[in-house]
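Page 47, continued from p. 46.
Same chain as before, 68 aa.
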Amino acid sequence: MNYAIEHEQEADGRWLAEVMDLPGVVAYGRTEEEAISRVEALALRVLAERLENGETQGRAFSVSFAAA
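Result:
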């Protein structure tokens, strides 16, 4: 699975990063890199929970992120 990370700088200077294909996976950071790192970690937690709950239908998968 490939996930695109959308990111932008807010008016207050903070950076917002979001994985559009994973609802609710949004993170802020003081820098662009920090926001991207935080959203990647959150996305991995969400995907791990899906694995634990059997939501992957028993198939193997790999994950990659690309900042847009």
